[in-house]
Every structure is written in structure tokens, then in C-alpha cells.
Design brief:
The chain contains 27 helices and 27 strands. Strand 4 and strand 5 form a beta hairpin.
């Protein structure tokens, strides 16, 4: 029986090449889309799941009330971990981590003490870090690698860069940093799985922070992250109730409350609303899954439509089989097997297609994804294929196997209005989805265009930023390693490190094409927050949280910000570290009508307000502008240099800046810079990815829908070819006949547009609601989307109907 079914299947392919090709093309694209998204979603969902303690490992977060609602911080007070271990029995271990993101620079300079210099991402962690986080240790003892304050644990990649194939254990690593710099002993080597959400190169003891920073252990200072390993039987909701007011109990001025979230959930659920997790990356995973399902469904709709439309060509076959006693269940099995065979052929082609294009899709997915054949992945592919085959073939099998044998043999079978209505409904569904996707990509594009063109309150164009290196000592010529040591000794000499950076900035200003220079620690989407500020007339119940940016002299001028009152920081005045500059929103919410000259108290020190800067966007435009102050910094804390250059001669100017950098800093390191507008655009990677995804999805949906429509038009014109021939003989022109035949399909597309546009409005209104600054859904967007769908559909239908209308009517009338 199986052999018989296969023979019939291949005969049907031979007889109906066009419909088979259309079905295979649509199903191949649909399955390829599903497979690609399956690979990506499985990669995303596996992040941090490799950890041994993933079910009991939590991160403590802090909710801080403010004028615009509750803001959720990952930062917590430094003493928190020790207190939670001591006072809460369900806490088995606690770890404090100061991640590399806390620093103004993501990368630091490390050396092997000789001639090799590399950049790395460094973080400080407490002693039990590798016991709580089960990152594989290839060398060293998990429980003892951080026993010594002078120890460092490095990644396999960093070990290879610094020491090659030599055993790194016991060797020294020199960190070139004015505050934390020095020689550290390698006590371990770790490797990070690709599915880790945190990527870093070197781990130092947290005790280094405690020794080299003042006041860092105070409860009114929130900087590090806190991670806890809970008892397996602990109830996280009850635990959250117990730790809620821990910070308030230690710092009466704090309004912060605590809660714990499973660490493996923080990657996907990284957005918070009013102090609670509210989506994040998981929303994009859901979006990808929905789009994959819709595209596969559209491909299955094509199969259903063409299979039922071609029913009239198989009625005699079905009638004959029923007349000789073949039961309906056998016919059902035959047609369902034909459907499954078509889908499996499509799966084979789809796998080849996925293997070929997967390396090119890293930009779309935002990370490297690899196709791996495991029991679970193969099983998943087969399940999707079988479901698609059943979904696509079940209705045609029921429909075809249900024909009356007598009517089928007489050739008087009427496929019925019910079948036609279903086909029409499926066409409407296809083009409704297509309409939604086209409008979605248009709205997303316009919103990103607003992001790119909106006046941010500063000029991000033609500005480069780079991490400042360690200046070479002018007193030593004994090689770079000795020069670095000499530099460390010279920090108490006549010229301090910050003075050397100031000298370098002046050097850059003398380069033709350099308009201005400055330095900063925090700026775009990287800023501090504090409630440790008071001012005259402050309401005791006012819990305002201020954002703060640490920047050097000329920062306002270099970035093109506008002062609406007073002045910015200047070298012409003394004791500028006792001054402060606020933004407009801060002054307004503080209630200061005449702010210049007023005194405020920041972190226990009195500051004089010298200026008010016009509001500018320092984070994603999802958020309204927050109260902010700019704090002057000229020391090593501000590790980022910023240079405004001539836009007409960028390459030459950057080459001169590079030459100056390599002469002034450690020359073994390459000069690496980024344009400021690139850093800003990086904030919207998710939106750009959604735009690209919507574009690809819309293109795929349009293609599949159009080839399905093309197949139906081909079948319709073949079925009506005698009618077309008679109309031509009676004098109707080609265009009249084409319009007549295409009228039915045009009506279906119009219904699709009418259904799709309101749904698009609903979906896009919800998406835009996340932005504090967003575009309006204008009428022309809907007009454009509807017109695009109609034009594409009309081209598909009209070209085929015109071709049918132009055939010789005599040939059509001669056919029996």
C-alpha cells in the first residue's frame, strides 16, 4: 500500500508541476523561517541555564521611588551580602560583584610585566564567587582562587594572549590603572560558556575595592551587585517580604526596598515597571515565535487552497476508487501521506537553505547562532514538520476523500460553495497578516527615524570617544614595563596623572581639525543615581532621585549642549569641584526659581549651583528626562576621552589623534575609538532588530501569499479558459477579460486590507506606548500599507489573467 501511495504521489507531481512547485516553495520558506527562529530562541532560552545552582541562585535588586514612579536598580549597598548571610538562614552563600559595566570604560590595560599589553574586561568579586557561579575552572581550586587579596583569576583567552602556551599559574599580571593598578598573581583560569549572559576576562578580589576606596562600605552608597544562593526549600516570595526594608533599617534616609529575582530570569526579563519585572528580551522572543507561526501558517494556507482548488482534477480518480470498494479512511491516509511527503521534501530543502544562510544572520539575531543536531533539535524539527504536514493536509484529505462516487464518475461533481468560501477566507487571512506586517515595518522605521533625528539636546555628530591609556613616564627610557613602574612612582611627584591627561587634551586641541576635547566617566545610558542631595526648602518627604554624570572641563562645549542659565565648569575659576551644574528638569522639580548661586548639599558636602544646562537625553527615549546634575571629574575615574573633530576631513584628523595617542600612551596597544553617534545608536539595537525582522517577515509573507494567489489565479484561468475563449470570440478585449477574472481576487484583497489595518493600529499603538517620545499613527501610513498590498496583489493577478486573455480562443474552444 505504501508503494502504491508513493507511485501515485510522484504521478501527481508529474501532472501538476506548477502547483507542486508552489507548495514546496511556500512550505520550504515557511519551514526555513521556523527552523531559524527555533535555533535562535533555543539559544536565547538556554542563557545561564548551564549553572549548577540555577534554580536557587538569585540576584537582589533595589526599587527606588522617584518623581516618575519606581526605578529598579541592580546596584545595592556593599555591606548587604554579608548581612543577608548572617541574619537570614535561607541564604546559604552570598557574593558581591562590581562588574566591569560599573566603570566608565569597558576595557582596561593588562600586561604580562614584560612586553605584552592587552585590553580586558575586569570585575571585582567576593571570595565565594566561583562556588556560587559554577563557571568551569580549568586551573586552580574553586574554593581558594580568591583567598589572597592580590590574586587574579583570568579567562583561557586572556591567558593565551598574555602567556601563550606557558602555564599562567603563579605568574604576575600588571594592571595599568591609576587607582587599582599593580601586580597581581594568577591563581586560576576559567572558561565562559557561550550561553553565559556575563562576559568578562579577569576577576579580582573585592577586598581591593575595600582597601583602595573610602566610604565604599557605607549603607548610603549603592554600586555593586548582590547575588545569593538560597536554600532549595526557600520560598522566594516570603524571602522578598523579609528583605524588603533591610536597607531602610540600616540607612534611615534611604527609600529603597529590596527584592530577589532568579538570576537565570534576569537575562530575558530585564525590563521593570513600577518595581516589578515587566518583560524585556522575552518580548522579542515571543515576537519571533509569533512571526514564525504566522509565516508557516500562510504557507500551509497555500497548500490547503491549491489542494482543494485542484480537487476537480481528481474527482474521477476518487470516484473510481470508491466504486471498487476502497474505503474513505484509505483515501484519507493517501492524501494525508501526500501532504506529509510534500512537507518532508520541503524540510530537506529548508535544511540546506538554513545551513547556507545561517552564518549571514548574526546581525539579525544580534549574536552568533549555530545549528547543532541533538536529540532535542532533531525531535523538534520532526515535530514541527509533522504538525505542518497534518495542518496543511488534514482538511484537503477530509475534503477530497468525501466526494460522492456516483457524482464523481459522472463528472457532475460540484465542489460546493462551502469549499470556495473556505478558500476565500484563507486568502483573506494571508493578506490580512501581510497587511499587518507591512504597516508594522513602516511604523517601526518611522519610530527609529524619530530616534535618529530627534533633537537630543546635544550634538552627537563628528565626535569620537576612546579610553585613555597610561601616560609614559618622561624620566625613564628603560622600556615600557619600567616606564609603567616609574609612572606609578611619579604619582606623588610634581605632575599628577590627571595633570598629564589635561596636558594631552591640550595637545589634541592644537591638532588642525580638532574643535574641542574633554573627558567623562558616565554619559549615554551609563550614569549614576543618588538621593543623597538636599537643597533649601526641600520637602522632607521629597524622595527625588537624581541621575548624575561625571565629566571634565569643556564637556558641555564639546558635546554642543546649551546653558540656559549661568555657566559650565571652567579652568578660569578656582575650586570648581565645590560647584555643581543641574539640568532644567532638576531645577524645576526642586522648585528653585533663582538657582544660580544657591547652595545644595551633595553627599554631605556643600556645593554652589553655577549653571543650568538645557535638558538633553542621556538614556533611551523610552524614558522621560530625569532630574540630573553634572559632577566635575578630572581624575582617573573619568577614563573616557572625547574629541570633537572636523566633519569634512575626518580620516586625516583621526590619524593625527591616533599618532598623538600612540606617542603619549603605552604604544603597544592599538588606538581604538568609536563615534558618539554609534554609541547612541547601540541603545536601539532591539528596535533595529525588530525593524529588520519585520522587513524580512513582510517580504516572506508577501512572497508566499503572492505565489499562493498566483497558483489560484492559474487554476482559475485554466478552469475558465473556454469562457475566456467565448468572450474573446464575442468581441471582449484582453483588458476587459483580465479585469473580469481578477475582480474576485481583488475583492478578497480589499477585505484583507480592511481587516488588517484596524488590527495593525491596535498592535502598533501598544508597541509605541513604551516610548515616552513617539510618532503619531498618521493616516498616510495606513494608506501606504494598504496601497502596497493592493498593488502587489494586482500585479500578481493582472499579469497572469492578461496572459490567459491573450491566448488564442480557438485553442481553448477545441479542448474537450
Amino acid at each position: 500500500m505504501l508503494k502504491h501511495h508513493l507511485i501515485l504521489f510522484f504521478r501527481q507531481i508529474k501532472r501538476n508541476k506548477i502547483s507542486f512547485l508552489i507548495n514546496v516553495t511556500g512550505l520550504t520558506i515557511g519551514l526555513a523561517t521556523v527552523l531559524l527562529i527555533y535555533i535562535w530562541t533555543s539559544t536565547e532560552l538556554s542563557v545561564d541555564k548551564f549553572l549548577d545552582n540555577k534554580d536557587n541562585l538569585v540576584q537582589v535588586l533595589q526599587n527606588m521611588p522617584g518623581s516618575d514612579g519606581i526605578t529598579t536598580w541592580k546596584n545595592t549597598p556593599s555591606p548587604l551580602s554579608a548581612l543577608l548571610v548572617a541574619e537570614f538562614p535561607e541564604v546559604k552563600q552570598a557574593v558581591t560583584v562590581l562588574p566591569f559595566e560599573w566603570f566608565s570604560s569597558d576595557e582596561f590595560i593588562l600586561s604580562n610585566g614584560q612586553e605584552q599589553f592587552v585590553t580586558s574586561r575586569n570585575q571585582f568579586v567576593s571570595k565565594d564567587y566561583f562556588s556560587v557561579f559554577s563557571y568551569p575552572l580549568t586551573q586552580g581550586s574553586r574554593d581558594h582562587v580568591l583567598d589572597d587579596d592580590n590574586s587574579v583569576v583570568i579567562s583561557e583567552e586572556l591567558a593565551l594572549k598574555l602567556f601563550g602556551k606557558e602555564n599562567p599559574l603563579g605568574k604576575n599580571v600588571v594592571w595599568l590603572h591609576n587607582t587599582f593598578g599593580g601586580s597581581y598573581n594568577v591563581t586560576g583560569v576559567f572558561s565562559l560558556p557561550a550561553s553565559s549572559s556575563s562576559m568578562f576576562d579577569a576577576v579580582f578580589s573585592y577586598e581591593v575595592i575595600n582597601k583602595l576606596t573610602d566610604g565604599y562600605q557605607n549603607w548610603d552608597n549603592s554600586n555593586p551587585y548582590t547575588f545569593l544562593l538560597l536554600d532549595p526549600n526557600a520560598n522566594i516570595d516570603r524571602f522578598n517580604d523579609r528583605i524588603r526594608d533591610v536597607v531602610k533599617s540600616k540607612n534611615s534616609d534611604s527609600q529603597g526596598t529590596l527584592f530577589a529575582q532568579r538570576y537565570m530570569d534576569t537575562y530575558l526579563y530585564d525590563a521593570y515597571e513600577n518595581g516589578k519585572p515587566a518583560g524585556g528580551k522575552i518580548e522579542y522572543i515571543k515576537l519571533f515565535i509569533v512571526i514564525a507561526a504566522l509565516i508557516l501558517l500562510i504557507a500551509c494556507v497555500n497548500f490547503i487552497n491549491l489542494s482543494t482548488a485542484k480537487a476537480s482534477t481528481r474527482v474521477r480518480e476518487i470516484g473510481l476508487k470508491k466504486a471498487i470498494g476502497i474505503k474513505r479512511i484509505s483515501l484519507f491516509e493517501q492524501f494525508l501521506m501526500e501532504s506529509l511527503m510534500t512537507v518532508f521534501i520541503s524540510l530537506s530543502v529548508a535544511l540546506v537553505l538554513v545551513i547556507l544562510i545561517l552564518p549571514e544572520l548574526d546581525t539579525l539575531f544580534g549574536k552568533e547562532v549555530v545549528l547543532t543536531f541533538t536529540v532535542w533539535s532533531v525531535g523538534g524539527f520532526l515535530i514541527v514538520t509533522i504538525v505542518a504536514g497534518i495542518l496543511a493536509g488534514c482538511y484537503p484529505a477530509i475534503y477530497l476523500s468525501g466526494f460522492s462516487p456516483v457524482k464523481a464518475l459522472r463528472g457532475t461533481l460540484d465542489t460546493g460553495k462551502g469549499g470556495q468560501s473556505i478558500r476565500k477566507g484563507l486568502v483573506v487571512f494571508q493578506f490580512t497578516v501581510t497587511t499587518i506586517l507591512i504597516l508594522s515595518i513602516l511604523v517601526i522605521y518611522k519610530q527609529i527615524e524619530l530616534v535618529q533625528t530627534k533633537n537630543l539636546g546635544y550634538n552627537k555628530d563628528n565626535i569620537i570617544t576612546f579610553t585613555k591609556g597610561v601616560p609614559l613616564s618622561e624620566q625613564s627610557n628603560a622600556g615600557e614595563a619600567n616606564q609603567i613602574k616609574s609612572f606609578k612612582k611619579d604619582t606623588t611627584g610634581v605632575e599628577k596623572p590627571e595633570q598629564r591627561i589635561e596636558r594631552f587634551l591640550k595637545l589634541l586641541k592644537n591638532i588642525p581639525g580638532v574643535a574641542n576635547t574633554s573627558q567623562y566617566a558616565y554619559f549615554i545610558d551609563n550614569f549614576g543615581t543618588t538621593d543623597g542631595l538636599s537643597w533649601p526648602g526641600k520637602d522632607p518627604n521629597n524622595d527625588m532621585v537624581f541621575a548624575n554624570i561625571a565629566a571634565g572641563y569643556d564637556f558641555v562645549e564639546t558635546t554642543g549642549m546649551e546653558m540656559v542659565q549661568g555657566r559650565s565648569y571652567s579652568r578660569e575659576f578656582g575650586e570648581e569641584n565645590k560647584k555643581i551644574v543641574f539640568n532644567e528638569t532638576a531645577v524645576k522639580e526642586m522648585g528653585l526659581t533663582d538657582p544660580i548661586g544657591a547652595k545644595v548639599v551633595l553627599w554631605g558636602e556643600e556645593r554652589e549651583i553655577i549653571g543650568v544646562v538645557k535638558d538633553f537625553h542621556f538614556e533611551r527615549i523610552y524614558e522621560k528626562i530625569k532630574p540630573l546634575f553634572i559632577n566635575l571629574t578630572t581624575d582617573d575615574f573619568a577614563s573616557q576621552l572625547i574629541v570633537k573633530i572636523d566633519g569634512n576631513n575626518q580620516d586625516d584628523v583621526i590619524d593625527r589623534v591616533r599618532s598623538a595617542y600612540e606617542e603619549y600612551f603605552v604604544s603597544s596597544l592599538p588606538f581604538e575609538f568609536r563615534f558618539l553617534d554609534e554609541k547612541y545608536q547601540k541603545l536601539y539595537d532591539r528596535e533595529k532588530r525588530a525593524e529588520m525582522l519585520s522587513g524580512y517577515a513582510a517580504g516572506i509573507a508577501i512572497f508566499i501569499s503572492c505565489i499562493g494567489l498566483f497558483g489560484l489565479v492559474v487554476f482559475s484561468t485554466q478552469k475558465r479558459k473556454k469562457e475566456i475563449g467565448i468572450r474573446k470570440v464575442l468581441g471582449q478585449g484582453d483588458i476587459q477579460i483580465a479585469l473580469l477574472v481578477s475582480r474576485e481576487f481583488t475583492q478578497l484583497v480589499l477585505i484583507s486590507i480592511a481587516a488588517g489595518l484596524p488590527l495593525s493600529y491596535y498592535f502598533m499603538s501598544n508597541w509605541l506606548s513604551d516610548f515616552a517620545y513617539r510618532i503619531d499613527l498618521k493616516f498616510q501610513y495606513f494608506l501606504i500599507a494598504g496601497s502596497v498590498v493592493m498593488i502587489i496583489a494586482l500585479l500578481t493577478v493582472t499579469l497572469q489573467t492578461l496572459q490567459a486573455a491573450q491566448k488564442n480562443p480557438v485553442d481553448a474552444l477545441r479542448e474537450q
